[in-house]
Every structure is written in structure tokens, then in C-alpha cells.
Automatic annotation (TrEMBL):
Keywords: Carbohydrate metabolism, Cobalt, Isomerase, Manganese, Metal-binding, Zinc. The keyword Secreted does not apply. Pathway: Carbohydrate degradation. This is Ribulose-phosphate 3-epimerase. The active site is at 39 (proton acceptor), 179 (proton donor). Catalyzes the reversible epimerization of D-ribulose 5-phosphate to D-xylulose 5-phosphate. It comes from Microbacterium oleivorans. Substrate binds at residues 14, 70, 146-149, 179-181, 201-202.
């Protein structure tokens, strides 16, 4: 039986599933979360458009929890630092969208943010193995980025497991995040494969009681995490 108390599970609700015109009230509903996950989309890197730095700055000013910004935008090298400057606790860019990912991660850290890198389902993680220490979190997408409410891709679990094994082998402290289709019926698979940070949009904001949904996800992840 796993001792769940010594394992940190982070639950980051995605406001993509929130009511955008009631953002302040929506944020108040997730005060027990660890971070609020903020999906920035540019209609170029992904076929959907959300919001930019001005909106993120307002969310930052209103949120009861720190921001976990997920940039699904092209030319991350150019734009990502702006989100760190706003004060986001964590800024994650896509590996596929960055020309110099290590330089960019260093820049984000120098501004004071946690530096994250995300990989789409078809992108291998092995290229990150030698530079794990340059990042504070690695996001393994469990859907094609662009939209909420899609089905969890269980076929990403072997990739996540390889990454978790490598991180452990190297004694890395990097957080391993999953995003897309994460809910009460799928979170255990990701925790078992080694994830410790979980993004959930519809599973939290679609629930009658988001606080209870966060608690349920947290406990399902903690019981399933392999030690
Ligand atoms: C998808 C976004 C996700 C999305 C997750 O491109 O990155 O953060 O909001 O939504 P659910 O949890 O509904 O799959
Ligand atoms: Zn996301």
C-alpha cells in the first residue's frame, strides 16, 4: 500500500473550461487548487484562439492561486518571456514551437518563473533527457493541443513512463505534468506512469462542486502514484 502522504500531487484546473465572462467567480471556485492552468492559443500553432498577455495579467491579479501558463503559440522564443514578466509562477512553451528551448528556459528562470516545456503526442521525449535540469516541469500532452473536452490518450503512458524513469535515474526534481482528458477515470493511469502534476478542465469546471472534484482527483492520483 503506497503511503500517499509523502507524495505531492498538484491539481491545476484549466480555465479553458470556465465561463470566460465570469472569470473572477470561476477562479474563486478553484481556490483549493495548486495552480490555475491558463491555455494561451494563437490560432497558428493550434487551430483555436483564446487570449493574450493582457487577459493573463488580469487573471493573475484576480486568481487565488498561482498561474500555470501553457503557451500553445508559435515563436515561443519571442513571446514566452512576456508571460513570465507578468508574474506567472510557471510558463510552459511547446518544444515544437521553440528554436532555442534551453536558452528560453534559462531566460524564463532568470525572470523568476518556473520553466516548462510541453510535447505534443507525436513528439518524442528522449531529446529532453540530457537537458532535464534546465526545466522545472515537462508537460506530456494526452490530447492533441487546441481544445478542451477531448479523450485521454492512454497511448502516451509509455512515453510518460520512460520520462519518469529517466528523471528518477538522474535524480531530477522536474515535475511531470499531463494535460488533456484527465478526470476521475483516467488520472490513475497517468499517476501510475509517473505524473505528479495534473491539468483538468472539464473534470473540474464541469462539476457541480469544483472543490470536491479537485479533492477527488487529488486522492485518486495520490493512491495510484508509483513509488
Ligand atoms: C488543450 C489544453 C488543455 C485543456 C484540457 O489544448 O491544453 O489544458 O483545457 O481540457 P480537458 O481537461 O477538458 O481535456
Ligand atoms: Zn493546457
Amino acid at each position: 500500500m503506497a503511503d500517499v502522504a509523502d507524495f505531492d500531487v498538484r491539481i491545476n484546473p484549466s480555465i479553458l473550461a470556465a465561463d470566460f465572462v465570469n472569470m473572477q467567480a470561476e477562479l474563486a471556485r478553484i481556490a483549493t487548487a495548486d495552480f490555475v492552468h491558463v491555455d494561451v492559443m494563437d490560432n497558428h500553432f493550434v487551430p483555436n484562439l483564446t487570449f493574450g498577455p493582457q487577459m493573463v495579467e488580469r487573471i493573475q491579479a484576480t486568481s487565488p492561486v498561482p498561474l500555470d501558463v501553457h503557451l500553445m503559440i508559435s515563436d515561443a522564443d519571442r513571446w514566452a518571456p512576456e508571460y513570465a514578466e507578468i508574474g506567472a509562477a510557471s510558463v510552459t512553451f511547446h518544444l515544437e514551437a521553440a528554436a532555442q528551448p534551453v536558452d528560453l528556459a534559462r531566460r524564463l528562470r532568470s525572470i523568476g518563473a518556473r520553466a516548462g516545456v510541453a510535447v505534443k503526442p507525436a513528439t518524442p521525449v528522449e531529446q529532453l533527457f540530457d537537458v532535464l535540469d534546465e526545466f522545472d516541469q515537462i508537460l506530456v500532452m494526452t490530447v492533441e493541443p487546441g481544445f478542451g473536452g477531448q479523450s485521454f490518450m492512454a497511448d502516451q503512458m509509455p512515453k510518460l513512463r520512460r520520462l519518469a524513469d529517466e528523471a528518477r535515474r538522474r535524480g531530477s526534481q522536474v515535475w511531470l505534468q499531463v494535460d488533456g482528458g484527465v478526470g476521475e477515470s483516467t488520472i490513475a493511469q497517468a499517476a501510475d506512469a509517473g505524473a505528479d502534476t495534473f491539468v483538468a478542465g472539464s473534470a473540474v469546471f464541469g462539476a457541480d462542486d469544483p472543490g470536491a472534484a479537485i479533492t477527488a482527483l487529488r486522492s485518486a492520483a495520490a493512491s495510484a502514484h508509483r513509488h
